[in-house]
Structure prediction request, 209 residues.
Amino acid sequence: MRSIEASGKTVEEALQEGIQKLGVRKDNVAVEVLSEDSTGLFKILANKPARIKITVMRDPVSLVREFLQGLLRLSSVDGEVVIVKEEEGCIHVAINGSRLGMLIGKRGNTLNALQYLCNVALRRNFIAERKQVLLDVGNYRTRREESLEKLAANMADKAKRTNREVSLEPMPPQERRIIHLALKDHEQVDTYSKGEEPFRKVVIIPRPR
Prediction:
C-alpha cells in the first residue's frame, strides 16, 4: 500500500494536499494524525502545522474487482471475477461462469457498457491513474475477434471482386481496430473509418487494378 506524509495549516488542508498528490479520493485512504495544528494563543506563538500520514487502502485492481463483484450480486449472476493480467496502462479482467449471456448482450453491447462503467469507476476513484480496463465475459471477445477477422477477409474479397467500397456495420473502436489490423497488410484493399460515435464504421476500398 502506498503511503505519504503531508502537512498543512490544518489536518483537513494536509489531507486535501495529500490526496491530490496521490490522485485518489478521500474515501480510498486511511489517515494517521502525526501532529495537529496549533490553536488559539499557541497558533500565534508557534504557528505549528498539522502533519499526517495518508495510506491508500485500495489499489486500482482491487477497486475493479470489487466493482464487478458488486454488479454480479446486484444482477444475481453466478460468475467469478478474474484479473487475467495487469500491464502498463491496462488491466485485463474476465468474468467466468455459466449463463453469462445477459452480461454480454447483443453483439457485446452490454459487455461494452460494463467495461465503460468499470473505467468510469476507476477514473473517479483514482484521478491520476492512466490505466484502462479491458473486460471479457465468457471468452466472448476472443470468439468475437476470430469472427471479425473472418468477416474482414470475406468483405475484402467482396470489395476486390466487385471493385466497390464495402461498408461494415457500426462497431466500437476496439472492434474496428481488429478489422484494420486484419487487413493492414492486404495487397489489394485499404481500410478507413467514417462517421461519428456510436455509428462509426469501417469502410473497405479496393486498390486500383
